[in-house]
Amino acid sequence: MIQFAAPCLFGLEAPLAEELRALGARDVNAENGRVLFSGDEATLARANIRCRFAERIEVVIGSFEAHTFDQLFEHTKSYHWEQWIGKTDAFPVKGYSLNSDLHSVRDCQAIIKKAIVQELKEKYGLSWFEETGCVYQVSFSILKNRVTLMLDTSGVGLHKRGYRPANNAAPIKETLAAALCSFARLQGYHTLYDPMCGSGTIAIEGALLANNIAPGKNRTFAAQKWRQIPSGVWLREKEAAIADEKPSSEFRCFASDVDRRSVELASGNARRAEMDRYIRFCAADIRDFRPNSEKGTVIVNPPYGERLADEKTARELSRVMGALFERRPGWSYNIITADEDFEKVFGRRADKRRKLYNGMIKCQYYMYYK
């Protein structure tokens, strides 16, 4: 059984833990900013291909307490790194330290690298390592003097699905957009609206979710080159993910933005994601938002003070949404914003709200469905 860690944006721990359990992960335990779990090689591949909310999937090598560089070195050296890293493999080191005695990240990187090299020297009988082979990215976290050592299996972050090579000024992360759709309980028979779509991320992630399409099915992962993971595992998991897709003939999405360039960008992203058949894009001001379906799910990431718009403009958009998003049977409205006075400006209290982070910006997700 392999131990794993899945880092995520703050606020997404619970849905990620639920997602991992549904994927067959064992010993699932949510912590601040990550979820720990266990499984086999198939679990590793499945989580990379199917997880919507994780930033990456990492193998946990070990965890220990360290207050000095000597302790960091000795503990790191005590693990059997040769079980993963071969004689010619590359093993760069990166990580972070928070609220710990060992606060210099650069020094921690050097000590961890030195300890791994020393352990491998003893096991392989080599004096130096060329590091020209497969990459095993070593990562570490040090939080309140607790060190966790890991190997990154994902490579490029899982939020990079591969459909968004270019972005507008302030894109929302794909993992957060997927979570917004999940929190809004988006289903395959719904009609989704995003009247401030930007680069189209919410619309695309909504279409992927509504059709149960694995977000990572069209990309590659670092561990696909690892000799410990048979290539057949990745093939089987990808085939299983495709077999579980549920194409919907009912799902529709209408996405618009006042900026024509953003609309063109979003349309291109949707084509690359192969979701363009479900989404209709157009250039339009939110003030002209007049949906004509009987029911609908509206999800919006409007520009706000800390993002793109000045505070006055952001507040005006909130007032516009309050007037347009009227109570109607079969409709829900979901808005993420950093404005703590949003409900007051919008005109009514949300039926539910969740604290989330858009990058480093603390936000609230306001949900109206009654």
Give a brief outline of the structure:
This protein has 370 residues and is α/β, with parallel strands linked by helices.
Shape: elongated
Rg: 23 Å
CATH top-level class of the largest domain: Alpha Beta
Residues in helices, as a percent range:
25-40%
User: Which superfamily, in CATH terms, is the homologous superfamily of the largest domain?
Assistant: Vaccinia Virus protein VP39
Topology record:
Elements: E1 2-7, H1 13-22, E2 26-31, E3 34-39, H2 41-50, E4 58-65, H3 69-77, E5 93-98, H4 105-124, E6 137-143, E7 146-152, H5 174-183, E8 191-194, H6 201-210, H7 231-243, E9 252-257, H8 260-272, E10 279-283, E11 296-300, H9 311-324, E12 331-337, H10 342-346, E13 352-358, E14 361-368
Parallel strand pairs: 5-6, 8-9, 8-11, 9-10, 11-12
Antiparallel strand pairs: 1-3, 1-4, 2-3, 4-7, 6-7, 12-14, 13-14
Write a structural description:
The structure is a single chain. Helices cover 31% and strands 24% of the residues. By secondary structure, it is α/β, with parallel strands linked by helices. The chain folds into 2 domains: 2-152, 2-Layer Sandwich (VC0802-like), CATH 3.30.2130.30; 174-215 and 247-368, Rossmann fold. A 7-stranded mixed sheet has the order 2-3-1-4-7-6-5. The longest helix is centred in the first third of the chain and has 20 residues, at 105-124. The termini are far apart. The mean pLDDT is 95.
